[in-house]
C-alpha cells in the first residue's frame, strides 16, 4: 500500500514539478531589444463595434535610448467616421520618457504627476518579450482611466495590443502588427 501511495504522489507531483518549472517565465529581454522605428496597422474595437464596425489604424512607434533610460513616441492615424468612401482621418502623437526606478525591470516616466490632482501617472515594464507602458488618470467624476500599451517583440517585428479601461470596464481595444523600418 505504501509503495502504491508513493507512486500516486509521484504521478501527481511529477507533472506539477514540470509545470512549475515551465511556468517560471523566460528571462526578460533588455530594453535594447525594443529600440528602433516600427510601422504597421491594425483595427480598433469597442462594445459598439458589432453595430458600427471597427476603425482602421496606422501606427508608428519609435523607441530610442536616452541619457537616463529610453523614450517611446507613438503615432496613431485613425481612419473612421465621415462619409462612405471618404473616411475622416485623425492623427495623434504621444511621447513618454522613462528612467529606471528602484525596482528592476520597472521604469518611471520623468513627467508623471499626481493623477488625483489632474496629472497623469505613467510607468513601463518588461516581461519576457513585451514592453508595457501604462498611463493612468483620474477623471473629474473620480473614475480612473488606465491605458495599457503592450508592445511584443516578434521575429517578424512587433505586435501591439492597446487596452483602455475605465473603472475596470474595457472601453477600447486596438490590435495591430508592425515591422521594424529603422534603428
* CATH class annotation: Mainly Beta
| Oligomeric composition of the shown chains | single chain
Q: Roughly what is the average pLDDT, rounded to an integer?
A: 84
Number of helices: 2
The CATH homologous superfamily is termed Calycin beta-barrel core domain
Principal-axis shape: globular
- Span of the ends, CA to CA: 65 Å
Q: Mind telling me the C-alpha Rg?
A: 21 Å
Annotation keywords:
single chain, Lipocalin, globular
Structure description:
Helices cover 14% and strands 57% of the residues. The protein is mostly beta strands and 183 residues long. It has one domain (27-182): Lipocalin. The radius of gyration is 21 Å and the shape is globular. Residues 1-24 have low confidence and may be disordered.
Give me the secondary-structure topology.
Elements: H1 2-23, E1 36-45, H2 49-52, E2 55-65, E3 70-83, E4 86-100, E5 106-109, E6 121-127, E7 130-138, E8 144-154, E9 157-166, E10 169-182
Antiparallel strand pairs: 1-2, 1-10, 2-3, 3-4, 4-5, 5-6, 6-7, 7-8, 8-9, 9-10
In short:
The chain has helices at 2-23, 49-52; strands at residues 36-45, 55-65, 70-83, 86-100, 106-109, 121-127, 130-138, 144-154, 157-166, 169-182. With 183 residues, the protein is mainly beta.
Amino acid at each position: 500500500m505504501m509503495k502504491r501511495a508513493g507512486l500516486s504522489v509521484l504521478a501527481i507531483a511529477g507533472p506539477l514539478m514540470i509545470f512549475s518549472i515551465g511556468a517560471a517565465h523566460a528571462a526578460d529581454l533588455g530594453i535594447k531589444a525594443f529600440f528602433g522605428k516600427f510601422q504597421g496597422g491594425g483595427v480598433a474595437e469597442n462594445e459598439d463595434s458589432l453595430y458600427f464596425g471597427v476603425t482602421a489604424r496606422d501606427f508608428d512607434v519609435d523607441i530610442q535610448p536616452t541619457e537616463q533610460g529610453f523614450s517611446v513616441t507613438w503615432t496613431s492615424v485613425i481612419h473612421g467616421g465621415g462619409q462612405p468612401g471618404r473616411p475622416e482621418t485623425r492623427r495623434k502623437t504621444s511621447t513618454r520618457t522613462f528612467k529606471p526606478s528602484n525596482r528592476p525591470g520597472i521604469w518611471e516616466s520623468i513627467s508623471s504627476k499626481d493623477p488625483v490632482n489632474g496629472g497623469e501617472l505613467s510607468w513601463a515594464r518588461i516581461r519576457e518579450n513585451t514592453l508595457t507602458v501604462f498611463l493612468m488618470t483620474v477623471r473629474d467624476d473620480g473614475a480612473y482611466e488606465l491605458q495599457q500599451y503592450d508592445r511584443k517583440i516578434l521575429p517578424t517585428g512587433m505586435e501591439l495590443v492597446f487596452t483602455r479601461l475605465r473603472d475596470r470596464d474595457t472601453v477600447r481595444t486596438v490590435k495591430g502588427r508592425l515591422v521594424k523600418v529603422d534603428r
